[in-house]
């Protein structure tokens, strides 16, 4: 059970639990991953997504820049 993502809420989220948000923050079903955080504030799986090294140089930056043009 503690290993299932999405079991932690704002009330139960501990210092060493993964703070990856799951679901819609405006929904009552919103929760956090809650697995043991081992890489910063995220579990291994989510840290991999959050701290993804830029594979293509400038890829993400270019995307952000082109998006900003439309916002
Ligand atoms: Zn996680």
TrEMBL record:
Show the InterPro entries listed in the entry.
GcrA
Domain of life, per lineage: Bacteria
* A Pfam family matched in the record: GcrA
Q: What is this protein called?
A: GcrA cell cycle regulator
The organism named in the record is Brevundimonas denitrificans
Q: What is the lineage of its organism?
A: Bacteria, Pseudomonadati, Pseudomonadota, Alphaproteobacteria, Caulobacterales
């Amino acid at each position: 059970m503690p290993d299932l993502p999405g079991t932690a809420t704002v009330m139960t989220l501990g210092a060493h639990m993964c703070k990856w948000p799951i679901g819609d923050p405006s929904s009552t079903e919103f929760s956090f991953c809650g697995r043991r955080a081992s890489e910063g504030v995220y579990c291994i799986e989510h840290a991999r997504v959050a701290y993804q090294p830029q594979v293509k140089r400038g890829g993400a930056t270019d995307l952000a820049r082109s998006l900003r043009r439309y916002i």
